[in-house]
Amino acid sequence: MDNGRFNKYGMVIAFSPAMRGDLTKMSTLKELSEVCEKEIGEKHYENCEGAKMVVECVARNGKAYGIEFPHPKNM
Fold first, then answer.
1. pTM above the 0.90 mark?
2. How far apart are CA 32 and CA 49, in angstroms?
3. 3 CB contacts (<8 Å, ≥6 apart)?
4. Which residues face 2 on adjacent strands?
């Protein structure tokens, strides 16, 4: 997020540690950020609403890109 608006580069940076240096996953994360950019748009979000939208986008679309974050209850 950048000033309440989605920023795909910010998303890549924020999720990079979860990719643990895997360059293939980093490339895929960039593709996923483009999907989220289209889905979330340029609307201005208040407080944590924008972050919620990013997490929901990754949860909804990540599996198609090979990026999943297991729910703690399933671990």
1. no
2. 19
3. 44
4. 5
